[in-house]
Amino acid sequence: MTCLARLPRDVAAAALVDEFPWVDVLPEIERAQFVHDFARAFQASAELGQWSVLAQTIVEWRSTAAIHADPALAGSLTGPVDEDFGPVPGPADV
Known about the structure:
By secondary structure, the chain is mostly helical. It contains five helices and no strands. The radius of gyration is 17 Å and the shape is flat.
């Protein structure tokens, strides 16, 4: 998988789209970041023998793609917050 990190990002992204079709909805700069994060998480998972590292990376990027796929959701998450939601409880209050 280290060869994936050495490929041009657009080529690596194209290779990952076969396995993760939702990568197509990511903006180009985020596709490049996904390729980088995927390669690093794969390497870390392989070295640690803990595939949860890679699984978490995929879950987080799939969620990011879901936001980009829904313009209304993307707008509500990136728009300004106009109201005060009150004080934030401290860790001891939860």
